[in-house]
Amino acid sequence: MRIPIDQDTRVLVLTGAGVSAESGVPTFRDAGGLWEGNRFEDVASPHAFARDPILVWRFYSQRRAGLDGIVPNAAHRAIAALEARLGDRFLLATQNVDGLHAAAGSQRMIELHGNLMTSRCSSCDRAPFEDRQVYRDKQVPVCGTCGGLIRPHIVWFGEPLDGRDLDRVDTFARDAGRHLVFVAIGTSGIVYPAAGIVDEARRAGGSTWLVNADRPANADRFDHVAIGKAGELVPALFGT
Ligand code: BV8
Ligand code: ZN
Question: What's the whole-number mean pLDDT along residues 1-11?
């Protein structure tokens, strides 16, 4: 089955952890939503960082180390190929922080929840910077400018997403109207506001597709549901 794309179609893709699963990146649900016995929401949060920055940096350092040797899979490549074909009639919004879409060549991409290899100061307004450092042995990086704690440039639970990112997604969907095709790939549709984008796509008049290994809770909000592996289904659906 291929997603019908004609010369007026505009494609908005949302990806979650499932698109990186075949690259060897564990999803949040694989781990049963736990890390070292903590719920993700309790580690990926400003409260956790205030309470125990060493624990939070151990969590993110482990995930940075876990990306060693990890490469994009056929789904990432098919998404980048569709962008190359459609140009400004394509937009990707990802919940993932693993950088694999960029590695596959995606450029019209919004990292809604930040990026694992970027850090910023939690106190002053110096710009976020590339940081591939794996912090070990209770290390917590300190800002050279103000002495404040350096934190991952990640949107934690309870923190707002960048309004400009959400506006860009809204505008793309509204401008596309009935020519919009929205495709969610590898996401359990639990975390908002990303999980609400399908509703905006429907309000805009678009058609909605879900590609997922299982049928998640929000599957009924999609016109079409393709159950299976992203690495196999996405190249076929996109015809790339
Ligand atoms: C916000 C970065 C408001 C971190 C992430 C109480 C207090 C505060 C907020 C809330 C609250 N209650 C609810 C909320 C809102 C909250 C939320 O939605 N919580 C959930 C738990 C109910 N949202 C937030 O907090 C957001 N902010 O609301 O701010 C605000 C406004 C103004 C001012 C102040 C505050 C922020 C949310 C962002 C959190 N950060 N990521 C990090 O990565 O460390 S979320 C993180 O979890 C991911 O980015 C992703 O979004 C989510 C995990 O979901 P998935 O990506 O879908 O992954 P998952 O493992 O769940 O599913 C994978 C799927 O793939 C599965 O279905 C599986 O079947 C499938 N799959 C597996 N293999 C394959 C496959 N599919 C295809 N092929 C395969 N091979
Ligand atoms: Zn600083």
Answer: 95
